[in-house]
Design brief:
- The chain is α/β, with parallel strands linked by helices and 230 residues long.
- The protein is built from eight helices and five strands.
- A five-stranded mixed β-sheet has the order 1-2-3-4-5, sandwiched between helices.
- The longest helix has 23 residues.
- 33% of the residues are buried.
- It comes from Tegillarca granosa.
Length: 230
């Protein structure tokens, strides 16, 4: 995974599409073996946060011109277990366990979504964050062996199919009920309160600044795509 691929994808879309009405940030890895990407970023933060941050900012100008537009972040309730270290851009914490790397990256998602919502209030589009719940996908392939999945068969009804898992995502993407509403967290097509763990405005702004540096966002902006700054 590299941020170069994100920039390449964004360029292709911007060249082909005059309007971007909905952006669903669903890229993610879970409990991936320890890896540092070519951008010198820990893989959970690289995929789950920095790629979303970069892609969203590269699309902002086009989305503003396409308003009303919506941005949806696919998150997880595990963000509540995350923590932030302003001196460690990878939120790596001395090679902490992979689960906490995932939780930290999802906390970064939450902070980014909330900070983005503050910055785009006057630009005519909305931001939503979704927890799809436990969904049977390949995201747990680095953690769950095939034999363990067989043991889960008796309780498989507790785990959503991909179709079931995308319902809240689609609800936030197209529901007319949410017109004029922005910045909230949703699960099972219903709003839930944000955890206090992502309520620090100073961290929110600091993470945005760190993310701009990590993704070299300011180097990529041109007269047609300046992103949002404060």
């Amino acid at each position: 995974m590299s941020l170069k691929s994100v920039r390449k994808f964004a360029k292709e879309v911007l060249n082909e599409e005059n309007n971007i009405d909905i952006l669903i940030n669903n890229a993610g890895v879970f409990n991936h073996p320890y890896m540092i990407t070519e951008d010198k970023l820990e893989v959970h933060m690289a995929v789950n946060h920095f790629s979303n941050f970069l892609l969203t900012n590269l699309f902002l100008e086009r989305m503003i011109s396409s308003k009303p537009s919506r941005i949806i972040f696919v998150n997880s309730f595990f963000y509540k277990s995350g923590s932030f270290n302003k001196n460690d851009i990878n939120m790596d914490f001395m090679n902490s366990k992979q689960f906490f790397k995932y939780a930290n990256s999802k906390l970064a998602n939450a902070y980014f979504a909330r900070e983005l919502d503050k910055r785009i209030k006057d630009f005519g589009f909305s931001v939503y964050t979704v927890d799809p719940g436990m969904v049977h996908t390949q995201i747990s392939r680095h953690t769950t062996p095939a034999w363990f999945e067989l043991l889960l068969t008796p309780v498989s009804w507790l785990i959503k199919t991909p179709l079931e898992g995308c319902r809240t995502v689609l609800y936030c993407a197209i529901s007319e009920e949410l017109d004029g509403v922005s910045g909230n967290f949703y699960r099972n097509c219903a709003r839930e309160d944000w955890s206090k763990v992502c309520s620090d405005d100073d961290i929110s702004r600091k993470l945005w600044d760190l993310s701009e540096v990590a993704t070299r966002l300011n180097d990529l902006r041109d007269n047609n795509n300046r992103g949002l700054n404060q």
